[in-house]
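debug: dumping io for the single-chain case to check the tokenizer round-trip. Nothing else runs in this session.
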Amino acid sequence: MMGKAFIPVPNEHLRGLAKVNQGMAAFMRKRDPQRIATLDQDATVVAGAKRDA
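debug: decoded output
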């Protein structure tokens, strides 16, 4: 799958992440209102050799 983008099926963890992002955005809007905002998110998966890594 290297080099190909995919959209994961939403699960409880992704829904939780969405709630966290909504909370952070609401906090920032309240603290420092702006007309335009850009949210950049990146994810990197790093293979680990340990079972509990």
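debug: round-trip ok. The chain has one helix and no strands.
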